[in-house]
Amino acid sequence: MGDKQGGEAPGRVSEVDRDNDNAREPRPRKATQLVHAGRADPRTVSSPVFHASTVLFDSYAQLREREADPNDRRYMYYGRRGTPTTVALEDAICALDDAVGAVLTPSGVASITDILSCFLRPGDHLLMTDNCYGPTRGFCQSLLAKRGIETTFYDPLIGAQIDKKIRSNTRMVFMESPGSATFEIQDIPAITAIAKRRGVLTAVDNTWATPLLFNPLEHGVDLAMQSGTKYLNGHADCLFGVTTTRDPQLYTRLRRYTLGTGSHLAPDDAHLALRGLRTLGARLPVHERGAVSVARWLEKQARVTRLLHPAWASCPGHEVFRRDFKGASGLFGFVLEVGDEAGLASFVDALTLFGLGFSWGGFESLCLPMDRERDTPSIPLKPGEALIRLHVGLEDPQDLIDDLRRGFSALDA
Ligand SMILES: Cc1ncc(COP(=O)(O)O)c(C=O)c1O
Fold first, then answer.
1. How far does the centroid of ligand 1 lie from the alpha carbon of residue 167, in Å?
2. 63 CA distance to ligand 1 centroid (A)?
3. Is 224 helix (H, G, I), strand (E, B) or coil?
4. DSSP 3-state assignment of 160?
5. How do residues 153-172 score in pLDDT, each as one tens digit?
6. Phi then psi for 105, rounded to 5 degrees?
7. 332: domain CATH number?
8. pLDDT band at 16 (very low <50, low <70, confident <90, very high)
9. What's the rounded Cα separation, in Å, for the pair 93 and 80?
10. Is 230 a catalytic residue?
11. Whether the CB of 182 sits within 6 Å of ligand 1
């Protein structure tokens, strides 16, 4: 392997609140907030699930009073506007992000498309990072284009040079860091500072890091979204998305927009999301340690020509990762000499612990060969090479390494 570099010291999630240590009256640390923030009913540890469409009012006066402000989450009004279960989830995520508001959606894609649809108008120009999640790119190229909103895809490593890309009609810079297919780490503070100076909104897909490892709002980003389907839920059993902000006006606009489109997170999914969130602080360091162990083993394999793990110098933007992130999660990529499609198939099909499937962030390990055309435009692949993405779950890393060994043996056979 070309760039050699040991992984970052694992388990740095525990450093998340080091700035808090000397405060006179310290706020609860993030791991504690994850456990305690957002309780629908103080009588039960786990928030009850409210299955509700119709809400009954005591009187006509109460009906009128509650109608007045759709953002007022103190009262139930109608199931689509929220229930104590969804409010508890929003409160817990706000505590995690130090946000003024959290807007829930039924999927991560819905959060992305809601941000873009809510804040962009025909004639606006969008700067979208070139390493964005595939469906994000698709939405820009299809629906946004049809609405007369032009997108420029910019180099994720552009940093302060974003200044040169901003036009008079540029309304938003959207970031994703690290990119979930090619893992470039963006200089979010530099991009955000320029965008602020130029009066341009900023938004980021922060699914890889979660606010425990990198909180975009602390770096001035206006809107931070995550596919909660991944680490927040952590159990691969529900889909949801969430956007947080520290700006009350942006929150109100986005909340009204999602209410207006009829978007809503179903109560059982909100419950699963909240249940998963409680253990995020415990899970993330295990994902990090497992992924670092697996990556250290992979980099010694002759057929592995490049490691795309943010904690390795071979990952574009690694120095920004070292500066800004509190640790790594469990998703990374590597370039493998497979020879041909049959070689790739033999590697993947020999794995028994790594499941073959989309998504990531759950307790289980997954392996996904990335699509050369669709997913890897920024990573030059030689003929016979494939980019493989691993999500390292909570299994014993040694067993995962043994599983990968099976894949390498099948490839060499
Ligand atoms: C980086 C990233 N953002 C957003 C999404 C979309 O999330 P969801 O599947 O919840 O719609 C994904 C899904 O894989 C993702 O990897």
1. 29
2. 38
3. strand
4. helix
5. 999 999 999 999 999 999 99
6. -140, 165
7. 3.90.1150.10
8. very low
9. 19
10. yes
11. no
